[in-house]
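Sequence only, no structure available. Ideas?
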Amino acid sequence: MKSFVKLGTLFLALIAITACTGQGKYAYETVANDPLKARIYTLDNGLKVYMTVNKETPRIQTYIAVRVGGKNDPAENTGLAHYFEHLMFKGTEQFGTQNYEAEKLLLGQIEEQFEVYRNTTDEAQRKAIYQTIDSLSYEASKLAIPNEYDKLMAAIGANGTNAYTAFDMTVYTEDIPSNEIDNWAKIQADRFKNNVIRGFHTELETVYEEKNMSLTRDPRKVYESILAALFPHHPYGNQTVLGTQEHLKNPSITRIKEYYKTWYVPNNMAICLSGDFNPDQMIATIDQYFGDMQPNPNLPKLPTTTETPITAPIVREVLGPDAESVAIGWRFPGIATHDYEMLTILSRILYNGKAGLIDLDLNQQQKVIGASVYASGMTDYSFLMAQARPKANQTLEEVKDLILGEVEKLKAGDFDEKMLQATINNFKLMQMYQLEHNWVRADMFVNAFIHGVDWKDEVVSLDRMSKITKDEVVAFANNFLKDNYAVIYKKQGKDPNEKKIDKPSITPIVMNRDTASVFLKEIQNTDVKPIEPVFVDFSKDLAQLKTGSGIPVFYKKNDLNDVFQLIYLFDMGNNNDKALGTAFQYMKYLGTSTMPLEQLNSEFYNLACSFNVSPGSERTYVTLSGLSENMPKALELFETRLSDAQVNKETYTNLAADIIKSRNDAKLNQMQNFGRLVNYATWGPKSPTTNILSADQLKNMDPQELVDRIHQQNSYKHRILYYGPKSEKELLTLLDEQHKTPKDLKDIPVGEDFTKQQTTATKIFIAPYDAKQIYMAQISNRGETFDPTIEPTRELYNEYFGGGMNSIVFQEMRESRGLAYSAWAGIVVPSYLKYPYEVRTQIATQNDKMMDAITTFNDIINNMPESEAAFKLAKEGMITRLRTDRIVKSSVIWAYINAQDLGQSVDSRIKLYNDVQNMTLQNVVDFQQKWIKDRIYTYCILGDEKELDIKSLEKIGPIRKLTQEEIFGY
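Reply:
I predicted one. Tokens follow.
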């Protein structure tokens, strides 16, 4: 679920909404002083079109939003909205098919059989019906062209092909080149007007795998439990977006078609755009292709549900594998109300990561672990949720009471009134960040449309919020935050709601890779004026300066807004000193000799600036960012905090205990276990991940030694990276005045050199985790080091074989067989010259599909399907994206540093663009033969051994069962 903070204009001016007419016949609305300069059109059929122009890059973020979601699912068909989202990628009568007239006869029979299937309870009969469905689907697949929508998007150079479903919305996303507007509109209009449901049973398995993934996601289960408690009479609470396992296994194509015809209509849709385009031409194009969509004058309205007041705390338990935690939720009005603006302010007073009541009193005083608060807005209702994990030997009830204690302080007005202005300053900063990105700008439109927010109210929202007083916040808190909450105790244990569903017998559908519809051929042959690529010239696009003391400075001017980022980059990390990470964790809880921690963090929040130190394995990033007008004061605080942090022994004792508790908690999380298993296979028993202080070392560490590390950090050689509005002279003057370093910087200390393990024999590592779904990876390392001459072919191979939805991996693992929600494979470039190339695969799938997944992966890796049509799409899509992708802002600096790490001095995309032009499928085949075929792999499988086919695994290679202690290193 996407949360949305309502932000508006920075201007304190009277706002007027204006009706305008462009050069053509299309009237539109604008709002004075709108930082987006949005145009809002309404076509004759009711279709809304929101536009904002941003010419920084020649691309356009597009969202097509439909005002329907999980809350509109029939009670007996939950998950329908989300499932149909998947089916919107299957094509129409024009694409996705070779012969629709012949295909639709089979599709009709499949629909009929599913109706029989869902109304049959006898398992033997159901199995027989499913076999009929499978046979019909196989025959239908001979006439279909799977993934042709994705091929169309590849043909026009789209990025980010995706969609998402929430309770109130279903949204379809594309990031397209600015010269492909006509093709994009033609494709999308056909897609939304003429959807055809095909590939149904394999996609059903994909959706079910997504549901399987959710069963081990305890945060999702807690979220759903909060909603169920707060909204027992509303679909927010009495059903979920993914639906029940029972409903997913008994779908109705007939009901899905009815749903599509009812809701996917222009008077229930909006097209939201941000990027490089001419608005007059854009609206004419959209009208040309979408203008004949027929509206639904009888669009249903969800029955009004008024929840009864909660008069006493509602207490629920959730069981699952993750560490224990507490969540508390309160119900509020919907996002379009001014109450939601008040709630947004209130939530930041409670928690903002620096100076909220919970930040200061609970997190920084180490009374709980990881407490947070956020407001989540939806159309009909919203809610406030607070969460935290207990410390060692702390009960969940004690954590709950501590959180409620901070809520009581809020209600008593026990907070500094300056917090209100500081919060507005931070919202201004957030808005600056947001307006830099097309996807955020367009997403603002999506949320305004979906939730019924008038755009003029959105524009003045920040101005209204700036006028909120402390008394109003306190009164609001007392009105809403009573004993009317739901508390969810997340405990460890087996979830009784999990059901084991055996995999169905699915005949892989025909992929027809070399077949293309007339529609696709027309799109490919469309004459589009090309956009010339723009590559980075490191000698011109950033400045290389030096401070008065000789420290290198990489400088990039920000001409867009008042945001800055300053980074001290040290080529040293935990590999050089395994106590470094602990030292900077400790610093977060320390004040200076002149300023206690509470005051220090409050100052940063008041300045709308942030400070962070992040030691990685090989680099440490010391970062300051925020409003440039406050940079001098923030830099002074920043430097003082590094040079004058003061020891607090009690704080360190608490920190050590919390680190040990968090390490133990990590062992309970599925993805943490999988990540550690993959690290073990990559590095062996000793790795950068296991290079940490032991529990005994933590307990016995003198905290003064950690503070000494903090004080000494600036004494080591480093580089300075700056992106912001200050001139070169202003920046160097400020650094010379405030960056505290000795005259002669010390060399970086020699670190421990960890070596990635070469794959010399087939091995299978199994690590234990009790879940309905395994996570599996394959890793192959032959020791080959970075070679710039192969890079273009490597990238094109990855694009063709394992890249996006048009790749071989996606088609074979998901589309053809329904084995997984997500699967990926490719050859990974090293990040530094000292590291090797690695071939990797990854998949999450139901336990009983494991061997099918391994067999299919190994087959397509070693015997790569060859398709001229698929290759052409991969090549053309890559070239089109290279023509329109731009490296801008601070990314220019990072592109230079990443190039240096691999011994390069120019933008690698130049060679990629030039070489790919002349490549053929044979180049990819030759690369696969030399670099990929017949490799030896280490298999990493995280799952419940009792649910795995061990005998079949043993035929692949020797199995070693690893313990959690081995993969975590503690």
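The two ends are 35 Å apart (CA to CA).
Hope that gets you unstuck.
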